[in-house]
Amino acid sequence: MANIMANSRSETSSRRIIPTTTINETTVTEDGTGSGIDFDGETADWDKEGENPDDNPAPPPDATSPHTYTKYDTITTYKELQEGETVRHYQPVRFGVSLRYQLDDRWSLEAGLSYTRLTSEITKNVNNVFTTTKIHTDYIGIPLNVAYHLWATRYMGIYTSAGGTVEKATEGSLWQFSLNGAVGVELKLARLFSLYAEPGLGYFFDNGSSVPTLYQEKPLNFNLSFGLRVHLK
Known about the structure:
Layout: E1 3-13, E2 25-28, E3 34-37, E4 43-46, E5 67-70, E6 74-77, E7 85-89, E8 94-102, E9 107-126, E10 129-152, E11 156-169, E12 175-188, E13 193-204, H1 214-217, E14 220-231
Parallel strand pairs: 8-14
Antiparallel strand pairs: 1-6, 1-10, 2-3, 2-5, 3-4, 7-9, 8-9, 9-10, 10-11, 11-12, 12-13, 13-14
């Protein structure tokens, strides 16, 4: 299912493993018994009740059906979803540093640097064996916006903004282009600095990535951005 390619990191795990436990690989068979690697790197065994005599036991998966659990860091790509696979996308959040140049009392220009992580989970069911792969794709971007100020006091302000963003994947050669519109709220920390939050909409153009992402499935999507703003004028 996976070929090596430098554009995302992946992590595979069973959805039913206790999340606070670190296990490298476990397998449970049809009769509910199983074995795996515990946190010391040693093999651990359990029975149907999950009993394990080791000092650092690895808890079993749900023993009602066979599962495999594997956790690793690698670089993975998917050409398309295969039969028995489903995908779930998480809502991305963008963090950034913005520079604002005030043109007059209402209008301003903005530019900056942003970081976005896209996260997707692909779950595969083969003969009642479930494997979940979590894929992370990170982007560094440069947003360019025009803002119109609706309301402001000494300590906060509300505005609208529109523009575009150019992003580059931190691994590989993927570029992402998007158009964005948002309503923003900023809290002024000092004359030159403020914190901002911007919920809005973005349209993300197809960049030809073979990794399934939210941007591919829903090009028109809700955006949420947070960051620090520096006021140049």
